[in-house]
TrEMBL record:
<keyword id="KW-0961">Cell wall biogenesis/degradation</keyword>
<feature type="binding site">
    <location>
        <position position="316"/>
    </location>
    <ligand>
        <name>Mn(2+)</name>
    </ligand>
</feature>
<dbReference type="InterPro" id="IPR005150">
    <property type="entry name" value="Cellulose_synth"/>
</dbReference>
<feature type="transmembrane region" description="Helical">
    <location>
        <begin position="658"/>
        <end position="679"/>
    </location>
</feature>
<feature type="binding site">
    <location>
        <position position="120"/>
    </location>
    <ligand>
        <name>UDP-alpha-D-glucose</name>
    </ligand>
</feature>
<feature type="active site">
    <location>
        <position position="456"/>
    </location>
</feature>
<dbReference type="GO" id="GO:0000139">
    <property type="term" value="C:Golgi membrane"/>
</dbReference>
<keyword id="KW-0328">Glycosyltransferase</keyword>
<dbReference type="GO" id="GO:0009833">
    <property type="term" value="P:plant-type primary cell wall biogenesis"/>
</dbReference>
<feature type="transmembrane region" description="Helical">
    <location>
        <begin position="526"/>
        <end position="547"/>
    </location>
</feature>
<keyword id="KW-0472">Membrane</keyword>
<comment type="similarity">
    <text>Belongs to the glycosyltransferase 2 family. Plant cellulose synthase-like E subfamily.</text>
</comment>
<dbReference type="GO" id="GO:0016760">
    <property type="term" value="F:cellulose synthase (UDP-forming) activity"/>
</dbReference>
<feature type="transmembrane region" description="Helical">
    <location>
        <begin position="691"/>
        <end position="713"/>
    </location>
</feature>
<feature type="binding site">
    <location>
        <position position="149"/>
    </location>
    <ligand>
        <name>UDP-alpha-D-glucose</name>
    </ligand>
</feature>
<feature type="binding site">
    <location>
        <position position="292"/>
    </location>
    <ligand>
        <name>Mn(2+)</name>
    </ligand>
</feature>
<feature type="active site">
    <location>
        <position position="149"/>
    </location>
</feature>
Length: 742
């Protein structure tokens, strides 16, 4: 569809969505063209002024290292500009969907995944469950599945409590059209009942009281760490747990908490409730469980037996629905008469509701969400990012796209299991057993892929390679909101896993240029490479952060003299790149301080997370390491939360990542002081002319590392840099400086 298209669809129907090309891209393209010219001049300078054979060996190696780093930076920049060249934006027409298909809307199976009640509190999990149960969508067409990979009766108890509360919460949401529909999120943003509506105020107080009572019961039980005998007698489901059960060794547990087919499964107003199912797949120590991917595949199989919804939505347990219309937005794409049959999945952005004003740890991905993902959409389709994604079931299960594969949603809606709930529970246990996938295509050609830390990315790419399209939609009201990391280490560990998984993908048979050859557009292959090579870019960043400062100590010049014309391309590229970045960041709602924090955190990631991701990937290929999956904690201590809200960077725990960051920060501080001393104290003009750019570079790195110096030497709270890290980093920095000087 062309920009602003409202063309009539097949048989005279109007389309259910439109696609608009971004406006005002002339300025961006002029900027990109001028940047490209500047980059070419930098390359020319590096080649023409390459140190001769008689020059210092160290200078030749340093020069070569910087040149290779600049080539890698340039390649990364080129790929990002290619993706951003012509972004597109999608808009849906939900009113047309309701007018034409309200009676035949497809079934939606919603998967909520949790793994450990200790770091993913049950009260948070059930808030997510309640938010998706309350979608503005026919309840008889909704089925919600909670996958509990921790096999915890605490989580099951919380789900039982949520099922009872839903009988009051869903009518309240429906009656007053409230947003968001996560009780915790709603009551945190609406702390007082509305004065303008006495009827709503009365119900608000009643619902708030019911929620607080439920919350207290769940949190009290969670703190105790066990289910009382009195509670166990309330539901037969607790019989599935015995004294021998552990989170790593237990049988399959399937419990249909609410059977949507049961005429008695109604809310307080007599309206049907969505189906609600608890699943904990079998786990045995001798079987590899394949982390979240294995849980997703068990959910696909079990749901096919119980409800078999044509569309599957999966969300992380902390990613609650912030927009009750999101499900209709997604269905608009699948049911569009002209383009719907081509679409395998609809991806919403991953956003957070606990960001600080200036986004201390750069979790927002503001420009990626607003520019890069729309750019991916124009180049062949966005990635599947593991949460907030609506899938066509048959595509997720391995079906190849065929022009003749258009399907009638009406025919699929009747394919629900007809057995009783107890019979279904028993028959589904086999589908969630450890041995079910043996000698099958699950995890290979069916379902979510195994053996990679970014199983979601590989799965989405495989779907695209089977001929399907994907689309990206970012409505004004965000579809999903989650919990962002609240400490620096959490953020860095998360990015280590992502970068490691992306590099694994690039070095595996799923490499975009090999697996995607002649299957997806070259532009899309290149777009995947932006993220696949995150770990490799760490080498360039480490070189640029460390080598110029070490050479500054030794008086070795690596950049043009300050009065030389060759300084112009360096100055232009650096200033233009960061000025455009700042303008773009601000345009999409960021602050200047937020942009500065973003620059800092990207440097930290590239010198630590991505570097360790690179090392671990190489070690894994050589057989010295195995793939692991770390769940990011969703809870933290009160004092940590207070420092986060005050935007004070959290160090606290010792980590090799902090040792690298602190060592680099100190190295640049020592080098900057030495460079300034030569110019100011020793009054040496020659160093100022030949080393000015290196002094400026070190000065900028010192400014960006100010929170690190505060953590090392000035702060006294519990979030300061650990003493062991301080000693190590000071020693390493002094050793590096000594070697550079002598």
């Amino acid at each position: 569809m062309k920009k602003g298209s409202v063309e009539m669809g097949r048989d005279g129907y109007l389309p259910l969505f439109e696609t608009k090309v971004a406006k005002g891209r002339i300025l961006f393209r002029c900027y990109a063209a001028s940047m490209f010219v500047g980059i070419i001049f930098i390359w020319v300078y590096r080649v023409v002024h390459f140190p001769p054979a008689g020059a210092q060996v160290l200078r030749r190696w340093a020069w070569m290292g910087l040149f290779l780093s600049e080539l890698l930076f340039s390649f990364y920049w080129f790929l990002t500009q290619l993706v951003r060249w012509s972004p597109i934006y999608r808009y849906t027409f939900k009113d047309r969907l309701s007018q034409r298909y309200e009676e035949v809307l497809p079934g939606i199976d919603i998967f909520v995944c949790t793994a450990d009640p200790r770091i993913e509190p049950p009260i948070m999990v059930i808030n997510t469950v309640l938010s998706v149960m309350a979608y503005n969508y026919p309840s008889q067409n909704l089925s919600v599945y909670l996958s509990d990979d921790g096999g915890s009766d605490l989580t099951f108890y919380a789900l039982l409590e949520a099922s009872r509360f839903s009988k009051h919460w869903l009518p309240f949401c429906r009656k007053f059209s409230i947003e968001p529909r996560s009780p915790a999120a709603y009551f945190s943003t609406t702390s007082e009942p509305p004065d303008s509506n006495p009827l709503m105020a009365q119900e608000w107080l009643s619902i708030k009281e019911l929620y607080e009572e439920m919350k207290n019961r769940i949190e009290t039980t969670t703190r105790l760490g066990r289910i009382s005998e009195e509670i166990r007698k309330e539901d037969k489901g607790f019989l599935e747990w015995n004294s021998a059960s552990t989170r790593h060794d237990h049988q399959s547990i399937v419990q249909i908490v609410i059977d949507g087919r049961d005429p008695k499964a109604v809310d307080s107003e007599g309206q049907p409730l969505p189906t609600l199912v608890y699943l904990s797949r079998e786990k045995r120590p001798q079987y590899h469980h394949n982390f979240k991917a294995g849980a997703m595949n068990a959910l696909i199989r079990v749901s096919s037996k119980i409800s078999n919804g044509s569309i599957i939505l999966n969300v992380d347990c902390d990613m609650y629905s912030n927009n009750s219309e999101s499900v209709r937005d997604a269905v608009c794409f699948f049911m569009d008469e002209e383009k719907g049959h081509e679409i395998a999945y609809v991806q919403f952005p991953q956003c957070y509701d606990n960001l600080t004003r200036n986004d201390l740890y750069g979790n927002c991905f503001r420009v990626i969400i607003e520019v890069e993902f729309p750019g991916l959409d124009s180049n062949g389709g966005p990635f599947y990012i593991g949460t907030g994604c609506f899938h066509r079931r048959v595509a997720l299960c391995g079906m190849k796209y065929d022009k003749e594969c258009e399907r009638e949603w009406k025919k699929e809606n009747g394919r629900r299991g007809r057995e009783s709930a107890s019979v279904l529970e028993e028959s589904c246990k086999v589908l969630a057993s450890c041995t079910y996938e043996e000698n099958s295509q699950w995890g290979k050609e069916m379902g979510v892929k195994y053996d990679c830390a970014v199983e979601d990315i590989i799965t989405g790419f495989s779907i695209q390679c089977r001929g399907w399209r994907s689309v990206y939609v970012n409505p004004e009201r965000k579809g999903f909101l989650g919990v962002a990391p609240t400490t620096l280490l959490q953020s860095l560990v998360q990015h280590k896993r992502w970068s490691e998984g992306h590099l694994q993908m690039f070095l595996s048979r799923h490499c975009p240029f090999i697996y995607g050859h002649k299957k997806v557009p070259l532009k899309l292959q290149l777009a995947y490479s932006i993220y696949n090579l995150w770990a490799a870019y760490s080498l360039a960043m480490l070189c640029y952060v460390a080598v110029p400062s070490l050479c500054l100590l030794g008086g070795i010049s690596l950049f043009p003299e300050i009065w030389s014309l060759w300084v112009l391309p360096f100055a232009y590229v650096i200033i233009a790149k960061h000025a455009y970045s700042l303008g773009e960041f601000h345009w999409y709602g960021g602050t200047i301080q937020g942009w500065w924090n973003d620059q800092r955190i990207w440097m930290f990631r590239r010198t630590t997370s991505y570097f360790f991701g690179f090392l671990d990937t190489i070690l894994r290929i050589l057989g010295f390491a195995e793939t692991t999956f770390a769940v990011t904690a969703k809870v933290c201590d009160e004092d940590v939360s207070q420092r986060y809200e005050q935007e004070i960077m959290e160090f606290g725990s010792p980590s090799p990542m902090f040792t690298i960051s602190a060592t680099l920060a100190l190295l640049n501080l020592f080098s900057f002081v030495c460079g300034v001393k030569r110019v100011v104290v020793d009054i040496q003009i020659k160093p100022l002319e030949s080393l000015a750019l290196q002094i400026i570079l070190c000065g900028v790195l010192v400014l960006i590392n100010l929170p690190v110096y505060q953590g090392l030497f000035f702060r006294k709270d519990k979030g300061t840099m650990p003493t062991s890290v301080t000693y190590k980093s000071v020693s390493l920095a002094l050793l590096a400086c000594s070697l550079a000087l002598y």
